[in-house]
Amino acid sequence: MTGLVVDSLSFARGGRTILDGVSFAMQAGEMVALLGPNGAGKTTLLRLVLRLLRPRSGRVLLDGRAIAGMTRRVLATHLAYVPQGHGVVFPYRVRDVVALGRLAGGAMLAPVVPAADREAAAEAMARLAIGHLADRSYAALSGGERQAVLIARALAQGARLLVLDEPETGLDYGQQQRLSGLLRGLAGEGYGILATTHDPLRAARNFSRAILMREGRLVADGPAAEMLSAQAIAGLYGFTAVSAPPA
Ligand SMILES: Nc1ncnc2c1ncn2[C@@H]1O[C@H](COP(=O)(O)OP(=O)(O)OP(=O)(O)O)[C@@H](O)[C@H]1O
């Protein structure tokens, strides 16, 4: 698995500091939840890790190598992005959406999808138990099915570190539970999972570790259950914790 190091990362836009000296490292099999109020800088941090933005200062290392010097193809062998499952423009078949993951590594430039890429896509779909959706239109899927397809696309890419942006958004309870089980299973196989979330209670249950951010700074980092106590959550989001009334 790919080890990720985020080293003193800062980012600014229009003279305003959006991320200020964020540092952490994560290893194989870790499930790291990134939490904080709206505007804390979570998405900006993910975009820097994915090299979709350039930091003002600091660096991101994958297996000890700075991502700034990597080709897109090499970066894609380490890191895969699972965006939120919205915004469907074309009614692609599910098997084609998953096979698109192979493009990130520079494969599949031919007009016909090479057999190896088709196999990788089929394997990823089988892994997520969505083989039966292969010929369905991605646009016609439920939110949970789309999320599974996007994770399959990331697996087809071959990367071992998955970066997910609010993966449970829009999913019903059952689909959230399935997603959590799936991510835990992947972590058990040695995938690294880094996900933003707005649900501290689920994060405390399902993630091994939580990183809390506020106003562009990392304010806490540790075991999820410990980091996400009622008091810590109240402090992070700026409200007063109320205890349950006596029965
Ligand atoms: N391109 C940009 N130009 C100017 N400001 C930006 C830009 N992108 C983000 N910001 C600002 O940076 C801050 C952090 O935004 P970011 O989207 O990273 O927060 P977030 O923690 O992901 O928030 P949310 O929980 O609402 O998704 C916000 O104040 C946002 O307005």
UniProtKB/TrEMBL annotation:
Asked if the keyword Protein biosynthesis belongs to this entry, the reply reads no
Question: Where would I find the ABC transporter domain in this sequence?
Answer: 4-240
- Record has Coiled coil as a keyword: no
Fetch the Pfam families from UniProt: ABC_tran
Which keywords annotate this record? ATP-binding, Nucleotide-binding, Transport
> SMART domains recorded for this chain?
AAA
Q: Name one GO molecular function term.
A: ATP hydrolysis activity
The entry's family comment says: Belongs to the ABC transporter superfamily.
Q: Which PANTHER family match?
A: ABC TRANSPORTER ATP-BINDING PROTEIN, HEMIN IMPORT ATP-BINDING PROTEIN HMUV
Which named protein is this?
ABC transporter ATP-binding protein
| Organism expressing this protein natively | Gluconacetobacter aggeris
Q: What is the lineage of its organism?
A: Bacteria, Pseudomonadati, Pseudomonadota, Alphaproteobacteria, Acetobacterales
